[in-house]
Amino acid sequence: MKLSNYFLPVLKESPSEAEIVSHKLMLRSGMISQSSSGIYSWLPLGLKVLKKIENIVRDEQNKAGVNEILMPTIQPADLWKESGRYEDYGKEMLRINDRQEREMLYGPTNEEQITDIFRRNVKSYKELPMLLYHIQWKFRDELRPRFGVMRGREFLMKDAYSFDIDAASSEDTYNRFFICYLKTFARLGLKAIPMAADTGPIGGDLSHEFIIISNTGESDIYFDNNILNEGNKISDISYDDDLNPIVEKFKSYYSASDEKHDKAKFDEIVHKEKQMNSKGIEVGHIFHFGTKYSNSMKANVLDSDGKEKTVHMGSYGIGISRLVGAIIESSHDESGIIWPDAVSPFTLGVINLKPKDDEASSIANKVYNQIDDKSEVLFDDKNDNAGVKFSRMDLIGLPHQIIIGSKAVSDGLVEYKNRKSGETEFINLDKLGKFLEEMNV
Ligand code: 5CA
């Protein structure tokens, strides 16, 4: 993509409404544009990152054997009256009447909708466990939308739902998602700590939040420092392995967010020097709630003896739009964003430092055309001065940069810059392809 043809409305100054670094950087780098409080348009750069995250989350759901579906954003109120949550959900739910005065709502979550799909289509224990997910926009009329996409009113969530014949099988499914989440966050370049959590309006008795450490997070977290060293080989775990001991190992470390924190227990089981207390961002949340919805909504199947049985359920959320902000919180410096390779909007930035020089421009164009075949490249071909170009490329955070200036014309050399370390080196033009290949770019 040529920058001259790309919609990238970068800002020099931090907008005054932004309090935390990810919100500031998302606005400054032209990733999002506010529509109203807690509601954003996603501009090209932001949308690319959102899609990259979405695809990693999707891939890991598929690998765990979860079926992708797509449910609507607008749901009928009747389903929520059946479960009893229509009144309970209160003012956070956006309620709408259609032209026939039927009560509808913009879904804040989909337990009711999915249970309705299940009960209409699944009749036998033979089809269980059944795991379904979708990636869809949600609306919650948050009391205090803030921090940009971190606590929005409209936000993108991956929500999965599971149906099992009994509690034991349902807990195995819960463990499957537990591992799937660790794999997903690791691929996104994040260290997410699973923490015992309250279940809130979703309900149930077993729940974990996945939280990344960040001083701008809204959660207060307490944990045993040793948990950070657990799960280094998480990508090697196969779903055919017995997952229970792996999950139990994670659960054996003390880790809890503030509502579940038990100071006496913390002091008893964790050595003082290993006791960690910090702020964190909740990027995922899993729930096991048994028959809460299947009971009230009569989601039953026939078991092997031909008897009707109420299915056991869980639900599993990942905040996809929140993750864009969360990744920036954990990966930036004073010059701007530093994208982990896996979610970077472009793999590589190419800067033509001499756009008015025909020879330099011809080399830069050639380099761009060559690399763009293999990787996604953002090519700064604009007529700005070097300072503007450097700071813009640093701001938007592409992890690898190729800078083409006067040395390209005089000596056939281009400069490679690693955004994270700041290290640079000159590469011979003939060897550039091989160099990038070796770096996996
Ligand atoms: N039905 C369950 C699981 S599918 C559920 O809704 N869980 S949740 O309420 O915990 O939300 C799941 C994830 O969505 C959270 O972990 C968080 O990462 C994200 N999320 C929740 N509220 C917001 C919000 N207002 N803005 C951005 N992301 C949010």
Question: How does this model look, in words?
Answer:
The protein has helices at residues 21-28, 44-63, 77-83, 85-88, 111-121, 167-187, 244-252, 263-269, 292-296, 320-330, 358-372, 386-396, 406-411, 432-438, and strands at 32-36, 39-42, 67-68, 74-76, 94-97, 103-106, 130-139, 154-164, 192-196, 206-213, 219-224, 255-257, 275-290, 300-302, 308-310, 312-319, 332-333, 336-337, 348-352, 377-380, 400-404, 413-418, 424-428. It contains 14 helices and 23 strands. The protein is of the alpha+beta class. Helices cover 32% and strands 28% of the residues. A hairpin with a 5-residue loop joins strand 5 (94-97) and strand 6 (103-106). The chain binds 5'-O-(N-(L-cysteinyl)-sulfamoyl)adenosine. Residues 109, 140, 142, 151-152, 155, 157, 159, 202, 282-285, 287, 315-317, 319, 321-322 line the site of 5'-O-(N-(L-cysteinyl)-sulfamoyl)adenosine.
